[in-house]
Amino acid sequence: MNNTSSDDILQLKQRLAEQEALNRALLEKLADREREIDHLQAQLDKLRRMNFGGRS
């Protein structure tokens, strides 16, 4: 027996689309933060070299 109505299917498709959109947004936010971390790490490395020389 198939008790799944077309309304149920449409609702599930809508929820799936919402979850996929949220996933894309979160992945983009994660990528932004990873880029920021890389940038800050490069700045930190530069400052360390300036203060302590190249052998630190």
UniProtKB/TrEMBL annotation:
Residue ranges the record marks as coiled coil: 9-50
Keywords in alphabetical order: Coiled coil, Plasmid
Keyword set includes Coiled coil: yes
Superkingdom of source: Bacteria
Name of the protein this chain belongs to: Transposase
